[in-house]
Amino acid sequence: MTPGSFEYQGRRIAYRDHGEGPRVVVLTHGLLMDQRMFGRLAPALAARGHRVLTIDVLGHGASDQPHDMTAYSMPEFGRQVVALLDHLGIAQAVIGGTSLGANTTLEVAVGAPERVRALVIEMPVLENALPAAAATFVPLALALRGSLTLMGALAALMRKVPRTHLLVDMMLDFVRRDPRASLAVLDGIVFGRVAPERALRRKITQRTLVIGHKRDPIHPFSDADLLSRELPGAELVTAHSIAEWRVMPRRLDDALDAFLTSVWAEDAVRAAG
Asked: What would the pLDDT profile of 35-82 be if each residue is shown by its tens digit?
């Protein structure tokens, strides 16, 4: 694994490069998380022959975290993924992500379709998710706005707690964040578009692997199912639980590897023909 960074509109974007070769996959994390959520998946895919790039979009992880809400939007996150490809001189890649990363992936597909070989979308946040998402993140933003000093002190304390377990750290990472940056990210997303509208999504023609979780109130399975039916090249895989890919990843790792292998095999067939 090789860490790196590049400058995007005067701000630093961090990424990590796992593996090598022409079969490139880019993975984007969830809201207020960072690329460490792929700490198991990225090396596992790299060991199977894929080059995996994980990115911290602006406001997350090791990237710059401005306190200006206008710095954040789903289309802007999509442009940052494209900027990563530009920085590394990669013409085309499989683009994927989870939750916020899933919607970022859709933004890349509608904004720069020529850069997208295929899509991997886990837990998209579409129309069916909006009520639950609003009920979760609007109160969270209000709570942060009213307790910035307290949350800042708590964040400084939590940063001293050693990282031990992936799932525990994923929950603690929110508390470890700069609360002013978290508030700006939430405000920017709440007041922008959450995902490309349906008419734009229906124009996406690349092959797509959609992973949906049942019994997930913020990422309802109905959104994953809807997306898999909207996109002509999509196939749907159902996770057994929200935690499956983080706790017992083998089945979903195998499904993703098979999908990626078949995507790149199509290129080999074209080249041979």
From this structure: 989 999 999 999 999 999 999 999 999 999 999 999 999 999 999 999
How far is 258 from 184, CA to CA, in rounded Å?
38
Count CB neighbours of 92 within 10 A: 15
- Report strand pairing: 11-18 vs 2-8: antiparallel
- DSSP one-letter string for 219-254: S-HHHHHHHHHHSTTEEEEEESSTTHHHHS-HHHHH
Domain that residue 202 falls in: 2-127+193-272
Tokens for 2?
């090789």
Given 3-state DSSP classes, what are the helix, strand and coil percentages for the chain, each rounded to the nearest 5? 50, 20, 30
Q: Can you give the pTM of this predicted structure? A: 0.87
- 148-158 vs 179-190: helix crossing angle, rounded to 10: 120
- How many domains are there within the chain? 1
**In-domain check, residue 179:** no
